[in-house]
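tool=predict chain=A
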Amino acid sequence: MAFSDLYDWISHLPHPSQWRRSVQSVRLFKMVELMAERRGGGKVCFSIDVTSWRTIPLGEFSCESMEVTTSCLFSFFIKSISYLLHNIKELGKSTELQLPSADPVPSNIDLSITQSPNYPLIFNSAFLCVCLLVMSPVTDRLYPQITQEFTQLTFPEFLSAIGTHLETPLMRFLGAYFSASFTSSLQEEPFHSSYARKISDLWKVGIYSPIVCMKTAKSHHKLCNLPQTTGKLGDALRYQQLESIIQLNHTIHLRHQEPYIKIEVGIDNLRCDVYPFDILQASSCSDVIATERYFPSRISLSVTPQHQPGDDLAISVGESSPNPTVHNANRSGLELSFQSPKQVGVKALFETETSFDMKYWKYGQSAQGVSGIFTWVLYDPVNKTEVTSSKPPKFSFMDTNPWYRDRYRKPCSPFNNEGGVVFANDRYGKKFTWRLERKTEDKILKLKIEGTIWLTYWPNVYNTSFYETRSHEFCEQIEIPLVKSK
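tool=predict ok
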C-alpha cells in the first residue's frame, strides 16, 4: 500500500467485532508495518512493527466511530511528537520506548483541521514524523522512500497544525536526519520546506533547508561536494541548516474620491540564521571547528500581484540604501631642513588620502514588470565587491584582522552573535505601492512571494583555503482581500 493511502486504510476499518482476524496490518515501507489489534470493549491497539528491530505500541483507541478514532490518533501523534522531541537524546539508548497515553477524545488540536480537504495528508505527515522519531536509529535505510513521501505530503499545512512551539525543533530534527542520510544516499529530491500563513495582521513566510540540500553556486574545487567531503571541517559544514523567517505587512487604502485602490506591502521583519545541529556537540569536533559555519551573503525577495488580464496595475518603488561615501583629503606644503649653516634642504610635499565609508549590507528596491524586488547584499569592504561573487584574498594571512575572521565576536560584525542577520522595518522599511482599478474592490488579490537566499562559507578561526556559496530558492502565495485596512 502506498503511504498516501494510510488515512483511508484507518478510516475505513470496520468495527472490531466484524474482523475475521484479531490483528489487521498494512505494510508502509519495506521494513515497517502498522498493526491494529482487537481488544475488549470495542477498542483497538495500534502499533508500529519494525522488522528485526522492535514493536512500538501507540496506545488503545475506541473504534465506535472511525472519524473520532482518526481525530484521537492525530491528537496522539501531536502529543507524541512533542514528547519525543523533548526526549530526542534518549531515543537510541533504550529498547523500551514509553509514549504518552492516548486520550479518549482529541484534546490538543484545533478540530477545524479535521475539516480541511487536505486533512488526510496532514494526518499522514503526523504519522510519518512519529515513525521517523521512534525509528531514528534505523531509518537511514529508508531515506529514499521517506524523502519521496515528504515531497508528496502537504507538509506546510502540517507545520501550521502543530504550532510554532514544535515547528523549529521538529524541522531541526528532520534537517539533521536528512543531512546524515543524504551523505550516504545522494537523492535527486533533497528535503527542504517553506510555507506562508497569516498570523494576526502579518504574513509569515518560513524557510528551512539543510546545507547539503542547497544548490552550489560557487565553490573551491577541492571540496565542492560536501556529501562526499571527509574530515572535521567537512563534518562541521555538512551538519548545518538554513532557517529564515520573513514577515510581511500590508495596508489597503480605499478613498471615495480616488478611482483606484492603493496597496502597500513592506518588510516588517526578516531573520536569516544558520543553525549547527547538535550532532556536532556529540562528535569529536574541536571548539575551533565548531565555530566554522556558513553566513547569509545575499537575500532576494520578489512580490508579484497575480492580477486578472485587463486590470490596469502600476507600481511605485522606494529608494535603496545610499552608495558608499568617498572622502578625499589633500595636504600640501614645503618641508625645510637645516643640517648645517651651509646646507639647507627644501622638499615639496603633496599627499592625497582617499577613504571609503562603506556599510557591510546594501539594501535595494527595484521593479521588474509589476513585481517589486527587495535585495540585501553583503559586500566585502576591502575589495568593494559582493561576497557571493568573490573569494577570500589569497594573502589574507598577512592581514592581522580581516573582517571575516573571528566574525561572530567583533563589535562591528555584519552578523549577530549567532551568525545570522536581522533586518527590521525601522531601518529597511521602504514599501512597494501598487495601484489597482477600483473595480477590483472586495475581491481577493493573490501575491506570489518568491526569492533566493545565498549562504557563503569563508574561514572564521580555522585555517583553510576552502570557500563556498550555496543558494536556496522558495516560492509561496498569499491572499489579500481588497477591503479597507482598519
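The chain has a mean pLDDT of 78. The longest strand covers residues 260-276.
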